[in-house]
Design brief:
By secondary structure, the protein is an alpha/beta fold. The chain has 10 helices and 13 strands. The radius of gyration is 29 Å and the shape is elongated.
């Protein structure tokens, strides 16, 4: 490594790879790539690659080689105090974040649809236990209508109900849009294919959530528009009950994929996506007025869990 090159302008070390900056500081301190590699548990070639990438960003050589190892070039000496200050600031920031996580506390009450528990709220529990042990969760399951009522009466801080595209009294944030499936027993002809037209639901026995469920209202509205009759033989807000009755040939129900995925894969029920028109439903996150810091943190984490999950299809 020689110093016969000049640094690029307008490119601050803060924009560089943090790991490369830490390696740069360590190599500068110990003056030897092998020693730095031993301390970091890395090979000398890996250390060299990181430094080479850093030098490309800097626009010049950062070290000079000599018999005893390496020493900082003129350019390296110039940026060394800047990099040291950046890493010191990052350390202080990490400490502030860690202390803030330790201080965060309080009860956060959540109302959720049962179908979201396994994919969203079980991971949420373990994440909160690890990162924010001072925050206690209270999670209760219910239908969309129940969740709205809990929000209205302020029995929960965060609610995740289904939503149509109509305006809500809350500042809802739509998390994910899901298509609806007609669910029936294994071997059933109507639900055998990949899709089924909505009109095919005319007069078939249906187990649906009771009004004023957003899903039920949407199905009723579509039925009027398509001039078909929905023969609801049972009003049941429990998704588990809807699936069990369908499995035992008591009727059909309408559910999103994530609510039936496991049973379909285990061949307990079968399902076909409803088309002409497709029936989409939104899950929204609703945070009550004047949320606590813990509530805001939990709602942010729930959003990130939705982003990482694959509950939609």
């Amino acid at each position: 490594m020689s110093e016969n090159s000049t640094a690029k302008t307008g490119d601050s070390p803060v924009n560089w790879d943090i790991k490369s900056l830490r390696i740069f500081i360590l190599v500068a301190r110990v003056g030897n790539l092998t020693k730095a590699g031993v301390e970091l548990g890395m090979s000398q070639s890996a250390i060299s690659r990181y430094l080479s990438n850093l030098e490309k960003r800097a626009g010049g050589y950062l070290f000079q080689r000599h018999g005893r190892g390496v020493s900082l070039s003129e350019l390296g000496q110039r940026i060394y105090p800047l990099v040291e200050k950046i890493l010191e600031d990052l350390g202080e920031l990490s400490e502030i974040v860690r202390e803030e996580a330790e201080r965060l506390s309080g009860l956060v009450r959540i109302g959720t649809l049962p179908s979201l528990s396994r994919d969203i709220f079980v991971p949420l529990f373990f994440l909160m236990q690890k990162e924010f042990p001072g925050v206690r969760l209270k999670i209760q399951e219910g239908s969309g209508g129940q969740i709205d009522n809990w929000l209205l009466t302020q029995q929960i801080d965060i609610g995740l109900p289904y939503r149509n595209n109509n305006e809500s009294q809350y500042a809802d944030e739509s998390i994910i849009q899901m298509q609806s499936y007609l669910v029936g027993p294994v071997g059933d002809r109507l639900t055998r294919g990949a899709t089924v037209a909505f009109k095919k639901m005319h007069q078939i026995p249906l187990i649906l959530p009771s009004k004023p469920s957003a899903v039920r209202m949407k199905l009723d509205e579509l039925a009027r528009r398509e001039k078909i009759h929905l023969n609801v033989v049972l009003d049941a807000d429990s998704g588990l009950m809807q699936k069990c009755i369908s499995e035992q040939q008591g009727g059909y129900t309408v559910l999103p994929w994530h609510a039936i995925k496991e049973e379909v894969e285990n061949r307990q029920i079968q399902a076909t996506r409803i088309v002409e028109p497709e029936i989409s439903r939104n899950i929204s996150i609703v945070v009550n007025n004047n949320p606590s810091k813990a509530t805001r943190t939990v709602s942010r984490i729930i959003r990130s869990l939705f982003d990482k999950s694959r509950i939609h299809q």
